[in-house]
Specification:
By secondary structure, the protein is α/β, with parallel strands linked by helices. The protein is 24% helix and 25% strand. The chain is built from 8 helices and 21 strands. The strands form 5 sheets. The protein has a 9-stranded mixed sheet with strand order 16-15-14-13-12-11-9-8-21. Strands 17-18-19-20 form a 4-stranded antiparallel sheet, with no helix packed on it. A 3-stranded antiparallel sheet has the order 1-6-5, with no helix packed on it. A hairpin with a 2-residue loop joins strand 18 and strand 19. Helix 7 crosses helix 8. Bound molecules: iron/sulfur cluster. Iron/sulfur cluster binds next to loops.
């Protein structure tokens, strides 16, 4: 499969014909005929190119709760797609078949921005999610699709590890309405050994998103038994979130399952997720959820003002929805997020339903 090469942004020539890619904090030096760590950014003829512009390795219609986003247009569908490659090297990657593939190795289909937008509309989606492999590395393509989506009245959702430079992030997120950022752990040791990246740039991205943009932001931490699920580490993560981001950024603790190069660890017990959620609440995080398990309480949004149950979820489906626009219908407390206008008292139930694959053809 011939990859589609597109002129890359965010690079400059340095010594001896090498190019410095400044898109992500890995700052790869890419020699002639070579690719960066992510596979898809390549030096040909002294210029940097992005392989895979206009190609997708798969589409699916997902409930937005699957991204996961619990405070952004609950119950809506998003058309999800990705390309190939990744700028991190997570040993537990749950999409490793595409994140570890080169664009020319993985089956893909041609997908222009206009065709993707048309597919989103045809499948009744409220927006498009850039996901599966980290969209940071194909930022040029994501931006072009996002522009077309905005023009068509669709929303844009970026699912990312947040490993992007200050130089590039402004233009990438300018076109996004919501994001879920994976905060993979809260130690540099974990980031270094298990993901081949660093913690600090991710924290910087989060602070910038919350304080300097209007992008709705939620955070996910996948808890891996014995690696990042200790009380102290979870407590330090939650304390940092509250101190640096505030109490209103939803935090999702999700369950790990053995995959890729990490098959020697058990699945995350539901009790671990419940424990993490208690720690988050104790530190002042107002909206903490658990994922990849069935847990009614851990997936419910309650009013922080009066305790009323507002949104009841089961995995990715919504079972009950009670909001007056962005307010609790009982006490009027504003629930942070981007919610549907109008009063919904539970009789009008919105549901994200299940996931299904779609193709452009
Ligand atoms: S985007 Fe890819 S090529 Fe550029 S610095 Fe990051 S890993 Fe390297």
């Amino acid at each position: 499969m011939e990859p589609t090469l597109h002129p890359a942004r965010w690079w400059r020539p340095v010594e001896r014909g090498k190019l410095l890619c400044t898109l992500c904090p890995r700052y790869c030096l890419v020699g002639e005929g070579q690719a960066g760590f992510c596979y898809i950014r390549q030096n040909h003829g002294g210029r940097l190119w992005s392989a895979g512009w206009g190609r997708s390795t798969g589409f699916a219609v997902d409930p937005i709760e699957k991204k996961p986003l619990n405070h952004f247009l609950p119950g809506e569908r998003v058309l999800s797609f990705g390309t190939a490659g990744c700028n991190l090297g997570c040993k537990f990657c749950q999409n490793w078949d595409i994140s570890k593939a080169r664009m020319d190795e993985h089956a893909s289909e041609l997908a222009t921005p206009d065709a993707i937008v048309a597919l989103a509309r045809r499948t009744g989606c409220a927006g498009i999610a850039y996901t599966y492999n980290d969209p940071v590395i194909w930022a040029e393509f994501a931006i072009d699709v996002a522009r077309a989506a905005r023009a068509a009245g669709l929303r844009n959702v970026l699912v990312t590890a947040g490993y992007v430079t200050a130089e590039a992030r402004g233009e990438l997120f300018e076109h996004m309405d919501a994001t879920n950022v994976d905060l993979k752990a809260f130690t540099e040791d974990f980031y270094h050994r298990v993901t081949f990246s660093h913690l600090t740039p991710v924290l910087e991205t989060l602070e910038w998103l919350v304080h300097e943009t209007s992008v709705w932001t939620e955070i996910t931490t996948l808890l891996i038994p014995g690696l990042n699920d200790g009380d102290d580490e979870i407590a330090r993560e939650c304390a940092w979130i509250v101190e640096r981001l505030g109490t209103d950024v939803p935090l999702h603790f999700t369950a790990f399952h053995p995959d890729f190069k990490m098959t020697d660890r058990p699945r995350t017990p539901p009790a671990t997720l419940a424990r993490a959620r208690r720690i988050a609440h104790a530190h002042g995080v107002r909206f903490c959820y658990v994922g990849n398990v069935h847990d009614d309480e851990g997936q419910t949004t309650s009013c922080p003002g009066c305790g009323a149950v507002l949104i009841v979820r089961d995995w990715h489906a919504i079972r009950r929805y009670r909001l007056d626009g962005e307010r609790c219908p009982d006490c009027g407390t504003i629930i942070p997020g981007r919610f549907h206008p109008g009063r919904h008292d539970g009789s009008e139930r919105r549901t994200g339903g299940g996931r299904f694959g779609v193709t452009l053809a």
